[in-house]
Design a protein that fits this description.
Layout: H1 17-20, H2 34-50
Length: 53
């Protein structure tokens, strides 16, 4: 009793430049688009809020 359960958080990356161009992705490490950078920043805020005790 009283033990905290571990939490698993799955997070997908934000939009990449190739996603934006509707190109195949998965074989190269492509930079994020501006929208992807905003998505990543938003995800960081949400993660920070979710881990506060």
């Amino acid at each position: 009793m009283g033990k905290e359960q571990p939490v698993l958080i799955l997070l997908r990356h934000g939009q990449s430049l190739w996603n934006l161009e509707n190109r195949f992705t998965g074989w190269k490490d492509i930079d994020l688009s501006e929208a992807g950078k905003l998505e990543a920043s938003h995800a960081a805020v949400l993660l920070k809020k979710s881990t506060k005790t």
